[in-house]
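Human: Note token order:
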Amino acid sequence: MNDHHLILGSLIDFISGKEIPDTLDERYRQAIAERLVRDKQFKRTDIVQDYSLTVTTPEKKAILKIDFIVLIDKKELMLIKYGPGSIITRHRSSLAASRLVAPHQIPCVVVTNGEDADILLGRTGTLLAQGLDRIPSRNELALMASKEPLEVIDSKRSVLESRILYAFEVDGSCPCDTDICRIEYEP
């Protein structure tokens, strides 16, 4: 857990049922998970949380946490990235992540601060909707995915998206942020 986060005790993770540290950020993540299951009809098994994404540049390497990847029929169809503060500043890095967590472009990208959300079309970054209530339901996501080709991300594009994600999420991040693991790396 991040040393700079106030630990308020512990809570039970909505998806896994495990006891985890209770922080203000974690309370928002839990509310998002609960909304996905209770309001948006996703099964707990549709949701992968705390996905570890390895990001590599020619000189650097790190592991980042992606809050939620939502699958339908074992296909990654929605990425949800939580972060406090401004949502728009996380659009580009979340889009980059949506091109790296699966072999295909994830069709729907949600960027949220727990109080508001921007829902983006993964392929173009176009703003589709705003607001937590506008996060697609399971049926809406399946329909969206049926209309969006699951474009394969080639290796050249992966390298570029990794550089973008590293620049936005790792460079300049707080050294005490344990959600980011910087790896000593020699190419």
In short: Strands lie at 10-12, 19-21, 47-56, 61-72, 75-82, 108-112, 117-121, 127-130, 180-183. The chain has a mean pLDDT of 89. The chain is about 25% helix and 30% strand.
